Amino acid sequence: MSSRRLAGAVALVTGASSGIGAAAARRLAGAGARVFLSGRDPDRLAAVAAQSGGTAIPCDLTDPDLTTELAGRVLDVAGRVDILVNNAGQGFAGPLTEMTDAQIQALVAANLTAPMLLARAVLPGMLARGSGRLGFVGSIAGRLGVREEAVYAGTKAGLSVFADSLRKETTGRGIVVTELVPAVVDTPFFARRGRPYPRRRPRPVPAERAADALLTGMLAGRHEVCLPRWMVLPIAVRATLPATYRRLSDRFG
Ligand SMILES: NC(=O)c1ccc[n+]([C@@H]2O[C@H](COP(=O)([O-])OP(=O)(O)OC[C@H]3O[C@@H](n4cnc5c(N)ncnc54)[C@H](OP(=O)(O)O)[C@@H]3O)[C@@H](O)[C@H]2O)c1
Asked: Which fold has domain 3-252?
């Protein structure tokens, strides 16, 4: 990671208490950025902040007021945000009919509404300066759909189209919008949602690799980074050959 371009940059990373977000916060700090870390668990967040020399701001992103407050606090303290890593997210595995109202609302709020609110909060400053980088951690679930993950997949599909639309809205104004589209990353994500990863392939990749892929993509001005790269194939098949995709999907899930 280029420390020349990141030295002194102000970064806000959500979901920094674990997994991909923690790895991203460490990488950014290692490259000289001033990092603000957000997450729910205050102890784990403080531990990652201590490792990275960053500032921990615990926040539950299912609450839109707290989410707006989080952005306000970082802007008050640092005066600007140069890099926003919208990474926090939660999953749910199981039939839609078994989800409670609260579970559906929490997934939509944390995975979709919060990244929108945070992007809206930091964007005016980025536009005024003519530079800024917005990273979004999507999911292959948002591109292909996954059985018994309808709400999760829906939030990630929404996030993907939101990022794409925001890119169009800000094009030519110095703003880079990058979406990471991971398949499977080796983090506590699956244990937390209550169902382990059920397949052999794609194989889980380390959280550090996912964080590097996102941050490198953001610095390089890439729109989208699939991890592993070959996941572009099923995405392309679904877009160009929907009937074939449906047959394959019915067979292989
Ligand atoms: N792991 C995978 O295979 C995979 C694949 C595709 C996409 N993703 C996406 O990658 C992102 C990072 O997940 P991960 O794999 O690193 O999982 P993780 O280790 O479980 O980390 C998730 C992070 O999001 C935070 N978070 C969750 N709900 C939150 C809420 N309501 N308010 C504030 N923070 C919240 C967690 O905070 P606390 O721990 O403090 O609660 C944690 O820091 C997520 O958006 C996920 O959907 C993961």
From this structure: Rossmann fold (3.40.50)
Q: Is 152 a catalytic residue?
A: yes
Q: Which helix (H) or strand (E) holds 228?
A: none
Residue bearing tokens 């001033």: 34
Distances (CA, A) of 14 to 25, 50, 57, 82: 9, 16, 10, 14
Mean pLDDT, all residues of the chain: 95
The best mutation among 187, 214, 235 to test binding of ligand 1, ranked by most ligand atoms within 8 Å of the C-beta, falls on: 187
Backbone angles phi, psi at 190, to 5 degrees: -70, -40
How confident is the model over 98-110, as pLDDT tens digits? 999 999 999 999 9
Atom of ligand 1 nearest to the CA of 138: 7
- What are the boundaries of each domain within the chain? 3-252
